[in-house]
Structures are given as C-alpha cells and as structure tokens.
Amino acid sequence: MLLEVKDLDVRYGRNHAVKEMNLSVDENEIVTVLGANGAGKSSLLKALHGLVSIQGGTVSFDGNDITRASSAERVQNNLALVPEGRQILVSMTVHENLLLGGYRRQGKDLLSDIDSIYERFPNLGARSGAQASVLSGGEQQMLAISRALVAKPRLIMLDEPSLGLSPILVDQLFELIKTLNKEGIAILLVEQNTKKALEVATRGYVMELGSVVLKGLSGALAEDAGLVHAYLGAQS
Length: 236
Prior knowledge:
By secondary structure, this protein is an alpha/beta fold. It folds into 2 domains: 3-78 and 154-235, Rossmann fold; 88-152, no CATH class. It has 10 helices and 10 strands. It has helices at 41-48, 71-76, 94-101, 108-120, 122-126, 137-150, 167-182, 194-200, 218-222, 225-232, and strands at residues 3-12, 15-25, 30-34, 56-61, 64-65, 79-82, 155-159, 186-190, 203-208, 211-217. The strands form 2 sheets. A 6-stranded mixed β-sheet has the order 6-7-8-3-9-10, with helices on both faces. It is globular. It starts with a strand and ends with a helix.
C-alpha cells in the first residue's frame, strides 16, 4: 500500500474536523474523497501533507511512518499536494513557480523536466517569462499541477481541482488526471464534481462532519441514489 491512514484525528480547537479516519491509496490508483462543504475533506489533505497538526492516528507512505514529518519532508519523499484555490505565486513568473516546485532538486534534470512541462502545456511554455497573474483560471490550475509534477511525486493529492473552471476545461482536467495516472502517479482526489470523480476513480470515500460514512468501489457509489441525496446534495 502506498498511502495508509489509520484512525486520523484533526482538531481546530473544539472543532473535530477529521474523526478516526481510515483511508488507503495503492500504487497507480485513483481514489476520491467526496462529501458536502464542511465535511472535512480539505482538512484531511492538509493533515496528510503536514500543513495542520495531527492529534491522533498515523500516516504511512511507502511503508514509512510520516505522521510527524514536515511538509517539506513529505515532498522530498514524493508526496505532493495541489491545494484548493491553486495558491500559485502570482507575483512570480511561470518559470519561477516551476523552479519553486523543484526547490529540493538541482541541475539539468530539473530544467529538463520543466521543458517537458512546457511541451505538455504549450500555453505555459509560451508565457514562461510572464507573471502568473496574467494566466487564465485554467492555466493557473495547470501551473499548480505542473508545480507539483516538478517534485517528481509518486502520489499527488488534488483539492477541488475543477473549482471555477468551465465545462470544457473540466473535461480536459479529468483527461489529464487519467493520463498522469497511466504514467504511474497515484492520485488522491477531493472533488466537488461527484460524477466526474467517480468516473476516473477506482474507489471512493464519502465524508460527513469529519467521518467516513460510506466507502466502496466507484461504480457502486455512483449507482447509490441514497448517497447522492443524503451526503452529497446539490454538489452531485
């Protein structure tokens, strides 16, 4: 198992954001985490990336306990996060954002990988010297994903990647997710577009108020009308 989470607890003061969460992602697998706003999905990803404190439970990656590892250490160990809202540095150029993604790497291999990013996303290549603020929403999301790719991850966690994108760009985004997975990268996907998420994922977890209320194969979850009504609401 590539990522294994056992009895994870995350609190913000009195707010119990994640409650005894158990989750796993295997090599080359796409797993989705679904739920309404406030279910605890983003808190889960932040905890897995070391951005918020964990009050209980363990996180293992590639057989190593990373529960107390820093965010930088997790990146070094090939675990990457593309956060909600992209959080690229808009005052820096496209190229500088990509260099930042590979800040623990050096030499020609890093520059070669950035060149590969420009080949994959020609729009980013054409604007490599421009400030990231001039990019469209879709281009900014591609830059955020590319910044994660430069770190050479074995698993990428995506937090609401389709948020704010047009239907055409959403389709392109999910095609990219499938392509990255075929290239050997495991994906943990938090996504508001339930239908699209279940189409690309092997398995899914449904969260409500910090807890997993349902889990299973994506096909079975997609056919569960009770799931849609009870836990996902309009987001489905």
